[in-house]
């Protein structure tokens, strides 16, 4: 029999923490009439503040305008009798500092009271928890069509999906799939989606299953158009987070040739934040005059005359 290899014993470890509990607080003391206190209260004499509460205790501050001891006659002394804490301030430094105004100055006293010191066990671990991976699993579910129980026809393309997932993410899908549609049919229902491009619906499904947008292939110029159609779809199906994401993206594409179309879209789909961005872009008469020459502005005038009136009113107010 050959030699046997022994398995190394697992390494174990532990840790602990010493915890010093503390309560903190502060008090602001105002000295009003500094010159009078300096000339009327002699060395070693003091004036007490009123009692005050801070850090769970009651305190008083003793103010010595000419110091406590003979060798500190050129200093201001502050003393907390409860803890025996003393603070010295040289009068000359105070008078030159600029903090003495109208013969007054203020001092903030910070108190930290230590409580019982205790020891606690600290658990250490080398276990690393990865980020949530449900979006990958749900995307795989969408692509596999396994267990799909509803089908959509968008243009000439068909999309299979799961009615429970759609209903959980969209109140409109919930009303359609569990309201007017009857369950128990032997065949998978097929729903016709009009007025929407297949690519837009595909992106909408991707967001429903993963809470994110897919990377857009192609040139960047196509992105604003996709975001506009996706915003319409998000509003149509009551998906507020997706709608706001589209608003944020469109706000970054606003320019002379796009602002009018974007403003009309914002008005039609009740995007108040996007409207304000457009109004801010058009805040000068020079910019507005340039936008008036675009086809988008003519569309805005015909489709949303109330927005044009609001725009004029905002410019007049400014």
Automatic annotation (TrEMBL):
Residues 148-217 form the BTB domain. Pathway: Protein modification; protein ubiquitination. Pfam families: BACK_BPM_SPOP (PF24570), BTB (PF00651), MATH_2 (PF22486). CDD domains: BTB_POZ_BPM_plant, MATH. Residues 24-80 form the MATH domain. GO terms for biological process: protein ubiquitination. SMART domains: BTB. It comes from the Eukaryota. Belongs to the Tdpoz family. PANTHER family: BTB DOMAIN-CONTAINING PROTEIN (PTHR26379:SF215), BTB/POZ AND MATH DOMAIN-CONTAINING PROTEIN 1 (PTHR26379). This is Uncharacterized protein. The gene is ga00262.
């Amino acid at each position: 029999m050959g030699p046997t290899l022994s398995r190394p014993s697992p390494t174990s470890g532990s840790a602990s923490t010493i915890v010093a509990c503390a309560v903190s607080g502060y008090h602001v003391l105002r000295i009003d009439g500094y010159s009078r206190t300096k000339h009327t209260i002699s060395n070693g004499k003091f004036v007490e503040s009123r009692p005050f509460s801070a850090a769970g205790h009651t305190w008083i501050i003793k103010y010595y305008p000419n110091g406590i001891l003979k060798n500190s006659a050129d200093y201001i002394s502050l003393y907390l009798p409860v803890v025996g804490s003393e603070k010295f301030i040289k009068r000359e430094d105070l008078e030159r500092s600029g903090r003495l105004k109208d013969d007054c100055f203020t001092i903030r006293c910070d108190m930290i009271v230590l409580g019982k010191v205790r020891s606690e066990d600290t658990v250490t671990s080398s276990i690393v928890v990865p980020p949530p991976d449900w979006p990958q699993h749900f995307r795989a579910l969408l692509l596999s069509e396994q267990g799909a129980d509803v089908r959509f026809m968008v243009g000439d393309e068909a999309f299979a999906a799961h009615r429970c997932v759609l209903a959980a993410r969209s109140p409109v899908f919930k009303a359609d799939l569990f309201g007017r549609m009857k369950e128990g049919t032997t065949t998978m229902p097929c729903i016709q989606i009009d007025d929407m491009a297949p690519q837009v619906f595909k992106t909408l499904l991707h967001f429903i299953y993963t809470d994110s947008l897919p990377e857009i292939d192609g040139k960047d110029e196509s992105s604003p158009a996709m975001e506009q159609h996706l915003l319409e779809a998000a509003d149509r199906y009551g998906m507020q987070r997706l709608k706001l994401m589209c608003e944020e993206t469109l706000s970054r594409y606003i320019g002379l040739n796009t602002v009018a179309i974007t403003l009309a879209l914002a008005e039609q789909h009740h995007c108040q934040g996007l409207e304000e961005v457009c109004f801010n872009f058009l805040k000068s008469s020079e910019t507005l005059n340039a936008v008036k020459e675009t086809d988008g502005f003519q569309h805005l005038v015909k489709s949303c005359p109330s927005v044009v009136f609001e725009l004029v009113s905002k410019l007049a107010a400014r």
